[in-house]
Amino acid sequence: MNILSLSTLLLGSSLIFSASPKKPLYQVMSSHPHDVKEITPYIETVKQEGRLWLVQLKGSAPSEVMSHLRQTNGSDIKHYTAPVQKAAFASPIIKDFASRIDAASIKSDVETLANYKTRLVGSADNQKATAQIKDIFTALGYSVTQYCYRPDACSVVADKAGDGTSDGVIMIMAHLDSVGKNFAGADDNASGAAVLMEVARVLKDYGNKKTLRFFATNGEESGLYGAEHYAEVLKKSGQIKKLVLAINMDMVGYNSNGIVELETDSQYEGLANWFAGLATTYTSLRSKITIGAWGSDHVPFIKGGVPTLLTIEDWSTKTPCYHTECDKPSSLNYEYAAEIAKLNLAAIMSKDAE
Prior knowledge:
The structure is a single chain. By secondary structure, the chain is α/β, with parallel strands linked by helices. The protein folds into 2 domains: 73 residues, no CATH class; 262 residues, Zn peptidases (Aminopeptidase). Helices cover 34% and strands 26% of the residues. A hairpin with a 2-residue loop joins strand 8 and strand 9.
């Protein structure tokens, strides 16, 4: 082994990494181009696969660089291809509802959201997009509330109450804001917001036991502000304990290989493998699993003790237009986005049936 003294342990299909105490191992917690540019001079890559990027420092680094790194002993991070396995029983009811997911409807919503000049949080267009999403949920018959972490930055929560047999809540979320490029942000994250609304449309006629919650977050690109704010609201009220599952969708529209990446932290690895089984059972997707959550709205809820998972396009082949002006609706694969919609709908309905 070289001077990095890095060992790689193969356990089943999982790769677990460890580094010597002399050279600590870090997971990179941001992929924003300006962050990557800032940290690159100070690091050397040990492993980069999917959303897992492991590095060691070349020497000392300033605090702003260290803020994008999380030290790991290697046992709490993994990246692997999930085994192809179907659930023992495929629910005809879930198949029926999944068949109602409409790729054309997802495309229409992506085009509408990307047609705003900018969805940068706090902008006038961002507020118009927020109001539009609120109106859509209201028209579907959901109970809608806004949560604002500042007056011009509001997230939307839409609830469909359960039948009274359970006080559990299942939440699915996607951020509605963009980095602010003109008439862009189609994949990041109009795609996730559009799938959120499509799942809400399909499930409005579902007789759920648990409360279904649709959470359109705001301020994700500025620092997960909307999700962090709402998670804190739920913690203070004690309501976060009612969340039995939270699903995040961020960049679910660009793909050519039919792979979805499933990301969470080590304590919920079983949840990721459960999702992989649902993907095989109810969709055409194959799954990769990343253990070591970062960079999107699932993180505050994982930290809050909620079983939470991110569904995202295969990061190894993510959109080349990430955070740039070319992130347009024409670049997306809407049938792929519809498959992720089916996966998350299947997870919601399966969890509701428990």
